[in-house]
Design a protein that fits this description.
The protein is of the alpha+beta class. 17% of the residues lie in helices and 41% in strands.
């Protein structure tokens, strides 16, 4: 597995469903937790959120976001977690919309507004591969 191979990252993300998202309007910071569906081909998270939330108000001013997905453990040898950066915008991709509702079918009844986080950077820390082992992936368009 090469240093920039996103396969291990995608496998890790497939085992989880909640991310922490950090946003800023340029002055104030905000963090929240969101359920997600992840598409490895499109390196994108799909999340649901309403326009009234602080993080959505922030992205209307600054669409750059950062976040994490972690395995909660007290065992150092089992520590795994992903940090990411990307752009947050209203979802327009019908295929990603179907993925979200396949992952969370009960959400259909709530008719949520869906958003996409197009990731351009991942850093996976995976102590199961060796203490402090990191896999970094960066989009090639950067």
């Amino acid at each position: 597995m090469s240093q920039n191979d996103p396969t291990k990252i995608a496998k890790f993300l497939a085992k989880h469903h909640v991310l922490t998202l950090a946003t800023s309007d340029g002055l104030e910071l905000s963090a929240c937790n969101l359920f997600y569906a992840y598409d490895a081909q499109k390196t994108s998270f799909v999340v649901a959120s309403s326009d009234e939330t602080e993080h959505i108000k922030n992205i209307s001013k600054n669409s750059s976001v950062a976040g994490t997905v972690v395995l909660e453990t007290k065992t150092v040898a089992k520590i795994e977690g992903v940090q990411f950066r990307g752009e947050f915008f209203e979802l327009r991709d019908e295929e990603l919309k179907r993925l979200y509702f396949k992952t969370f079918p009960y959400a259909l009844a709530m008719n949520p507004k869906l958003w996409q986080v197009k990731v351009d950077y991942f850093k996976l820390t995976d102590n199961t591969l060796g203490f402090g082992k990191k896999i970094i992936w960066q989009a090639s368009f950067l």
